[in-house]
Amino acid sequence: MTTTTSPTRTLLSDGEAIEDLVRAEEGLISRRIYADPEILRLERERIFTKAWFFLGHESEIPEPGDLVTRVAGLDPVVLIRDDDGVVHAFLNSCRHRGMRVCRTDRENVSFLRCPYHGWAYRNDGSLMTAFGESHYGEGELEKEELGLIPVAQLDSYQGLIFATWDPEAPSLDEYLGNMKYYLDIIVGRTGGVEIVGTPQIWDVETSWKFATDNFTDNFHVFSAHHSLVELGMLPNNPDFASHGHMIVAEEGHILHLTAGAPTEEYELLGLPQDLRDKMPEHLSPEQVEMARKTAYSAGTVWPNFHWLQLMSSGTMGQPDVPFLNFRLEIPLSPTRTRMYSWLAVDKDASEEFRKATYETYVRTFGPAGIFDQDDMENWEDCTRASVGPAAQRYPLHHKMGIGRPVDTSWPGPGTAYEGAYGEMTHRSWYAAWRTFMTRTGNGDGSAAR
Ligand code: UNU
Ligand code: FES
Ligand code: FE
User: Fold this and answer.
1) Ligand 1 pocket member 420 (CB < 6 A)
2) Each residue's pLDDT tens digit, 31-78
3) pLDDT value at 449 more than 50
């Protein structure tokens, strides 16, 4: 370890410092971080084995033996409920020769048998038997040591299951910190939500960070989705989603609470009356008041889990209907990303609302959604237009609201700013990115501090 020099520099192999690439306080972000394989190589170690990652919702695996296959960071996992009802997440890879032990998206099992040589694991991960076990001699198959590999920590909040590969990471409770207050408003508002069906999963030719970047961005809506304005499916007003607050909960955990049209319909997240009536049982009066002023909200649990609580018609000439979308993006390469998209609905929702919210969600978000198709076009072309050597000389601009004062009258936790167009959320996300990426020394492994 070298002694501290100030400011701390974390160097990539060509001597460029990560601190210079991400000047979050100035709102200047180098395009190199969206394109360089060396950056993804460092992200693999410093973000994707260190942060907490969303795996799924408890309602996706309600019964003993239920499983879904997911990705924790960058590693495939089986998220499974064992015979005693305990939820586990195991690396989806056999301890023998590494074969994927579960090859389906979801099923119910009492055990998983590896297709390759037949090692079989109980639904609590322990190794049960191997085919032709008698061919192993004394001490050659130490079954108690060869269970499936669990994530380092697994926990849930409001039914949202998260995992980390870092045994030293703070607990999920600590990691979420004051973001829990806002998760309560969105996910806990009526006593809990459940996932409808299965997530949609698809790949996009984008840097994962251009997709991540888009979720607390209201400023793009009028422009990027202008065809929907023309069709009468969004208000014809460039400021329509600008009223409300941008909030930095903890560094990296960010959200907006945005007002809709000033009518009752757009209050309380646009939910139907029977669900509105339940909110005071589950939220503080202060949280209910925040929800009252909110029609649209998006938030990011750092780094790559998002909610989108939106209202849209999804159909020309029809009234707006609210829906709650959960999102995740997983990098496959610097410029290719796997998207996950879930629809959540309040457990107590009526059949009528379930049908309406489902239809609205599939028409608007997910791979076929009219909003997502516009968004994907932007993420892909941001990527294509930023990877060239000349483009790489010019940083991207995240300065909106850099001089805006903190709203000191905001009753909730975190740092709030008035107005729902602003890039304070982006700057906080990139600052958190820099914190993770510079934590353990130079890119070549030598100590930076
Ligand atoms: O696409 C969005 N983020 C959005 C859509 C925001 C507000 C209203 C509709
Ligand atoms: Fe699983 Fe051989 S790789 S039994
Ligand atoms: Fe969009």
Assistant:
1) no
2) 999 999 999 999 999 999 999 999 999 999 999 999 999 999 999 999
3) no
Tokens encoding 219: 């400023």
Answer whether 165 contacts ligand 1 (Cβ < 6 A).
Answer: no
Residue showing tokens 């694991």: 121
- What residue ranges of the chain are covered by domains with CATH 3.90.380.10? 177-435
| Burial class of residue 266 (count of CB atoms within 10 Å of its CB; 0-12, 13-18, 19+) | buried
Give the three-state DSSP class for 131. coil
Question: 53-157 — its CATH code?
Answer: 2.102.10.10
The 8-class DSSP code of residue 119 comes to -
- Residue with structure tokens 């609905």? 345
CATH superfamily of 177-435: Naphthalene 1,2-dioxygenase Alpha Subunit; Chain A, domain 1 (3.90.380.10)
Rounded to two decimals, the pTM is 0.96
User: Residue 3: its pLDDT value, please?
Assistant: 47
SS3 313: coil
370-414 pLDDT, tens digit per residue, is 999 999 999 999 999 999 999 999 999 999 999 999 999 999 999
Return the residue whose CA atom lies nearest to atom 2 of ligand 2: 117
Tell which atom from ligand 1 comes closest to the C-alpha of 241. Answer: 7
- Among 219, 225, 374, the mutation site with the greatest number of ligand 1 atoms within 8 A of its Cβ is 225
Ligand 2 pocket test, candidate residues 91, 100, 113, 117, most atoms within 8 A of CB: 117
What pLDDT score does 2 carry? 46
Instruction: Say how many Å lie between the CA of residue 218 and the centre of ligand 1.
Output: 6
Output the average pLDDT for the chain: 96
Give the H or E element holding residue 226: helix 226-230
Q: Which of the four pLDDT bands, split at 50, 70 and 90, describes residue 225?
A: very high
Q: How far is CA 183 from the centre of its chain?
A: 13
Q: Which residues contact 162 (CB under 8 A, 6 or more apart)?
A: 52, 53, 54, 55, 154, 155, 156, 172, 301, 305
Q: What is the pLDDT of residues 133-153, one digit of tens each?
A: 999 999 999 999 999 999 999
> Ligand 1 centre and the CA of 79: distance in Å?
31
**Closest ligand to Cα 376:** 3
Nearest protein CA to atom 4 of ligand 2, as residue: 117
